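Risk mitigation, structural track. In case the binding assays with fe (ii) ion fail to produce interpretable data, a predicted complex structure has been prepared as a fallback.
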Amino acid sequence: MDIQWKDKYATGNEKIDEQHRQFFHLMNEVQEKSEILSKGMVLPRMKLQAAVENFIDFAIEHFEEEETILIKCGCLKCKEHILKHKAYKQILSDCQEKMKKIKNTEDINWFGDMCNFIQKYFVEHIQKGHEDGYLDCIKKER
Ligand SMILES: [Fe+2]
Ligand SMILES: [Fe+2]
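Fallback model:
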């Protein structure tokens, strides 16, 4: 199911918010393609692969950009936020590996569940930003 951007996810940093919106868009692209496959409809596997690669490349770039801001800000609690990126990158890399091995409907369903998990994790990641000092630093950097 699509995830929709909500104003409450805004950080107050226009550039970061734009990237988060793009993040949602790319996640939905992956989700949409995985749903087509799970319904047994024809979709060249390359399309799913391309959507996943786009999403992961963008995620890694985005995390690096955020980390540069957080390191520059020098906030100690922000280290936790950076660690969360590390965990997230590991999940994305697992997802990438799993995608290469999709063979049957069971694998596709597993992949769909993984997408749902990634979406939930990301929404939580940006919503809980205030807890680890992230929002304060991100807002300052405009
Ligand atoms: Fe972010
Ligand atoms: Fe982040």
